[in-house]
Specification:
Shape: elongated
Number of helices: 3
Distance between the termini: 53 Å
Largest sheet: none
Helix content: over 70%
Structural class: mainly alpha
Length: 93
């Protein structure tokens, strides 16, 4: 396998993980605006389930060598910060 193919696969893997993180952020945003309050067990369950799923995806990509561990951790941390900011903005309304 050529270096270009390896780099292309790594970039694609990271893009897919980023897209999944954005889907989670959007799902949480919609849920906060329309369905439940952040203290609701349903909200917490959805958030926990989605975040756990993404962390498993990241772990799998890291184990395959498609994403570096530090990149995966930063992606998850970034999503957590964004969800936290969304939560804070929602509670100020």
């Amino acid at each position: 396998m050529s270096v270009e193919m390896i780099i292309g696969r790594r970039e694609k893997a990271y893009e897919l993980l980023q897209a999944d993180a954005q889907k989670i952020l959007k799902l949480i945003g919609v849920q906060m605006e329309n369905l439940t309050m952040p203290k609701c067990p349903l909200y917490e369950e959805v958030l926990d389930t989605q975040m756990f799923g993404l962390s498993r995806e990241i772990d799998f990509a890291v184990r395959l060598g498609l994403v570096r561990a530090d990149e995966g951790k930063e992606l998850l941390s970034s999503l957590e910060r964004q969800v936290s900011a969304l939560h804070e903005a929602s509670t100020r309304k």
